[in-house]
Amino acid sequence: MAYSHQPLAAEKQSDQIEILQFYLNTRLPFGINVLKVKEIIPVPNLTQLPNANPVICGVANLRGTTLPVIDLAKAIGQPPTADSTSAQTSVIITEFNRGLHGFLVNRVDRIVYRDWKEILPPPNTLGTSTYTSGVTRENDALVQILDLERIIATFDSVTDGDYARISTEGLDDQNRCQRILVVDDSAMARAQTVRTLDSLRVPYVMARDGKDAMDVLLKLNGDEADPAEAISLVLSDIEMPEMDGYSLTQQIRKTPSLANLYILLHTSLNGAINAERAEKCGANAVLTKFVPEELATQVIAGLKQTTDKDA
């Protein structure tokens, strides 16, 4: 299946996701967000690296760019891909979290379209639920949408040194009185974000998706709520089951008691398309994951803007 990603009209619909569906070693389909896919290629020549993580098949040279190729089946705990020389075996080249990675799969199938509300949290019964960010159905089959960020983090994670570079410059006691709502369906991403906010010593609460976030906001920022408990800044992922970050932003802007909140979308997705969509939805800022220092700087800027507006 030859494929090179080009912007599509569907990408402009903030409530819809395109899913690239493929197969590993089972008859059950898996999927990833098309916005993460750069292209699909036959298995290239791979250079083996000594002492590399076992899930890395090797390194490929793609038009002068070097990138790791990961056996996706092995990475999620399945047996390794049986035959990488098969005509159907492909490498999905992805671009997210500011990097390029290749994922070896048995067979690429098709692209399917879903509303975000049709993407549900993974059931606990899934054996690979650790690496599954959501599920949907296609022709009565359960499609597992994989959490590529978590897979990459097993061998390319944020280090203590990255957090050590966080600066609190410009953050005062008044800023630290404001509460932040962290919205992310990934436990790993929430932990990374929380560690960054703890370094800034700012208060926060958490939600697992946009729907959960709206419930929290309506409770804490409603007309009968305690002003001391109110949220001042929403720090949200974009890709989430049931309600994504774009839809959450739109819902916040439509709700009078929430409309003036500062919204920072923090996403693994790269590119100007996502920044444009974020702006159209009403977000104040968008930032690509995950650099703790940059996140801290953007949070401080948002808190200061909120403080200045309330002054």
Automatic annotation (TrEMBL):
Is Transferase tagged as a keyword?
yes
Q: Which GO terms describe its biological process?
A: chemotaxis; phosphorelay signal transduction system
Give the UniProt keywords, A-Z: Transferase
Domain Response regulatory: where? Answer: 179-304
Q: Which GO terms describe its molecular function?
A: transferase activity
Q: Which residues form the signal peptide?
A: none
Catalytic activity, EC = 2.7.3.-
Q: Which InterPro entries match?
A: Chemotax_regulator_CheV, CheW-like_dom_sf, CheW-lke_dom, CheY-like_superfamily, Sig_transdc_resp-reg_receiver
Q: Provide the CheW-like domain boundaries.
A: 16-157
Instruction: Indicate what this protein is called per its UniProt record.
Output: Chemotaxis protein CheV
Source organism of this protein record: hydrothermal vent metagenome
